[in-house]
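QUALITY CONTROL LOG
STEP: pairwise intake check
CHECKER ROLE: data steward
CRITERIA: each record must contain a sequence immediately followed by its structure tokens, with no blank fields

ENTRY 1 OF 2
RESULT FIELD BELOW
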Amino acid sequence: MSAATDTDAIPVTFYRPNYHIKTPAMRSPEYVQLSTAAAITLGLIEGRMHRTACTHCLNLLVTYPEGCRANCAYCGLARHREETRDYADRNFIRVDWPAVRYDEIIARVRNGDDRNQFERMCISMISHPDSNDDTFVLLERWVREVPRIPVSILSNPTTLDYDDLVRMRDLGAEIFTVALDAVTPQIFDRTRGRGVDSPHKWDKYWRTLEWAAEIYGPEKFGAHLICGMGETEREILEVAQKIRDMGGHNHMFAFFPERGSLMEDWEPVPRDQWRRVQLARFLIDYAGGHIGRMQFDSAGRLTDFGMDRNELDALVASGKPFQTSGCPGHDNEISACNRPYGDSMPADIRSFPFALETRDVERVQRQMQGEDICTYEE
């Protein structure tokens, strides 16, 4: 795909050196990393994002100079990158994550105007011996100092026990999520477990989801799922249905190869496959759909959504199924966590970080019909 020619079609960012250069002293809980979109929204770095005023979710990541001890095949933070790139300079979910003092982030949020008012904060954990304790510190302080903004936890089940989930709830975490990502035991093991010399285990992740359902309750937990890592459409939707039956929600990502990861040479998920899964996930989570009424061919490809055609067409026309799925903000119908361009380039949008316009819906419809076109002309 050639580069977009529209100057608004790519995120434009100008880093201030004191936030771009990281040192060994920058470790949680004194420091956290935050997404590029969140940093722009807070005014920590200058820049703009294509067709969106950045994000309403303040995505934070615990950080340590020695990095994450896991080795997930698709992740920019994976341990294997120690040989080629310092941890502090690794990209994550396709963008840079500046390291900033937690004090400054809290001060800017508390003193900010309407342009940078977040509707949610999310603490993302990594595989590190200090990650649990530092998450408790960050969570407790946020709830005490910025109580008006609810907190989600993107957890690391490998290091957590049942009592840790209870403690997070008691400290004020509103929503608890698990980055399951891979949706079959085989793919999970190959990309996150023994196959890549990584510590994560399928059974522990599911046990943690079951704990979350019990401890946090319906609508207050969920899972991240990545579409396009070798699973069939039926397999990923079966997992989505199981999580919904438990009372949770599914935050779906399109696979897009992370630079420097073990899967950097993989192709992005085909557009038609992604659009079908996106729509079916929305039906399951929000529109009364059920996989039992859907139909699939012998290859596990979705052939019938199991819904009245007029109702289905109206949902597609609304564009809502194709927006980024994540934890809610003030309006429960809209995800506060819009992760701008976290799973695609702006010239080929997979998860829309804004409400779709008519031209966007028309291109999505053409993609669902099998036309292999980008969201915008190349």
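ENTRY 2 OF 2
RESULT FIELD BELOW
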Amino acid sequence: MIRTVSIVPTITTKSKVDYRTQVERLNVFTRRVQIDVTDGVFAPATTLDITNIWWPRNWAADLHLMAAKPSDHIDVILKLNPSLCIFHAEVQEDLTPLFEKLKEHNIKTGIALVPSTFPGNVENYIKMVDHVLIFAGRLGMQGSPADMMQTEKIPLIRAMSPDVEIGWDGGANLTNIRALAHADLDVINVGSAISKAENPAAMYDALVAEIDKTGVVL
């Protein structure tokens, strides 16, 4: 079955000026955006601090938190009130109480898996959350090539939680977006292919059009 796939632009930056610029550009053509936040510990790259993150009220924002201790940021997350908050399965703390806290505030929960994480090792989280993010790039950085072998995780995740929303993050562009769309994903997050495009809106439309093509997937 080919699912309806959503293209979700991603913001990854450490500059307040660039952040505002990206928000303004994306607000022209989309209402769902993933915002990447790193702490400089869990991920080597550093982004804009979570206390400086904001978005338009009409957005359904997905907050992807790459932090070693997500519990340190839970109060700020609750104030931001994202539509979805994604933590990493690899952190060294129990995420269960954090997911429960988010659900109490009607915030959807997500778990991200880096390439080396086998879904079976975090089945308890996969069965608990609303969204599973297959991370196939480099933490906190845009522009890395997609590790297409990570698509092999999709059927494993579906077997554990058939209705969970599955997202992809890492290297999606016009050369592979169609193959990813046919891999039983629900969401494809796109970073540099959109953010570095001369016309982000036109690139977004081109990605959507590529997904909508019928026929043999090359």
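INTAKE CHECK: passed for both entries
DESCRIPTIVE NOTE, ENTRY 2: The first strand starts at residue 6 and ends at 11.
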